[in-house]
Structure prediction request, 554 residues.
Amino acid sequence: MPRTAARVFVDCLLAQGVTTAFGVPGESYLAVLDALSDAPGIRMVANRQEGGAAFMAAAWGKLTGRPGICFASRGPGAANAAIGVHSARQDSAPMILFVGQIGTGMRDREAFQEVDYRAVFGPLAKWAVEIDDPDRVPELVARAFAVAQSGRPGPVVVALPEDMLAAPTEAVAGPAVRIPKAAPSAEDLAGIARLLEGAGAPLVLAGGGGWGEAGRAGLRGFAEANRLPVLVGFRNQDLLPATSPSYAGDAGLGKTAGVRRLLAEADVILAVGIEFSEILTEGYRLFPIPEMAARLIHAHASDAELNKLETAALPVHAHPDRLMPALAGLRLEGRARWAARTEAAHADWRASLATPPQPGGLDMGEVVRHLQAVLPADAILTNGAGNFATWTNKHFAFGERQRLLAPQSGAMGYGVPAAIAARIAHPERTVVCVAGDGDFQMTLPELGCALQARAWPIILIVNNRSYGTIRMHQERRYPRRVSFTDIENPDFVALAAAYGTHAERVTATADFPAAFARALASPTGAVLELAIDTESLTPRQTLSALRAAAEEGV
Prediction:
């Protein structure tokens, strides 16, 4: 018997294995909400703003490898959700945004909240489509799941006109899509071995999205067996455990001297899953384009990323979950001569974890060292964007089962929604969000989502009463001409308590361990406001020192 397209649509979500979706309700997709009420297999998480919902979907995709699902109403709702689409694109995280749309008969009249989603999201998402025929719902929903997960994973936007959703159809949901993963050929593996064995200073660069357990384990096995140093990409610190003797740090923002030396000296680079981004290449200046000085072996799940910027000596179209297990069995002839260099690189990275005493009463270096000592082996850390993120991104050594959810897009406000999504995905795991005071206030209403979903993380607000990163750039370029970067904050403790979570303000280093113990013990999570000195700009530079250097022209 014919049913509405909305009910067939929900059947399609169930067929694709969807268990959780994030969103804000809207009248433009009421038929879907009604159909979802008869689908107990899908948990709808009620967000407070579509930006928070989209961040949660993006984080879900990054954490689980399955598309995070977001629902938004038409027009303003879709515009709010765009930040999550952008973050998922730059994170290579599978995500699908389903957005309501005006009736099909109203197009091109500037109807209430009308948006051309193909035009708006076309350059931002991997694919943007509008379903205007109820009989095509199974076809286009399945394709959306396939596109989001294939090659380089990313976001897809699907518009759902409200009259189409209410229309009858005899279509039925199809099977779950199966996503093929490109595998290396025997010729590829032989070529990789040949180029690496001829190297005096080989280097592995690992990053991007789509890595599963097989890829991570294969990366570790291959690198350690062959005494190869590994640098991970921007905010990919959880790809290789820091305990690995091959781990040499990250090639993201704030590269250490040791990392720069490895990149400069490398004569053969095996780049796996890497996109040669602005951050990695320091504004596309680190490597000549289109051919770097080192011989490049570039392996990627998407052939579209190969030879995109850097022409590879050996391009390999292979997913890391297929390539790295295949490489793990190789024993390269040069491994003995590379060992000392790799040991030195790991030692350099270890030394970089140490930080000098910080100004003020609360030392974030000591805070991070305490987190390192007490967090469980499977803890999940999240953050948004700001100088505060340096503390956990550069000075926390991630273990084998610990994960980092952080936006390569540099989006403020990502950390809190990501932490809540992680708690929903893994309620048994400890989740800690590190947020700046400005960063936290971008998405603080999602504490209401945590309250309603009973998914409270621990949130550490690093409060320096400033947009610290922008203040840093301001002082560097226009010393003593500070404008627009000071923040007058609310009472974070009272605010968090109003949302039903444990809350404290910490002003002294010695008080943090006990406060964090109370946070860990709280059944409703916690918000700890960490009051740090505005002078504490970065772990190794105070605001005054930066200003003085800028004034001297250093």
Summary: The CA atoms of residues 8 and 172 lie 6 Å apart.
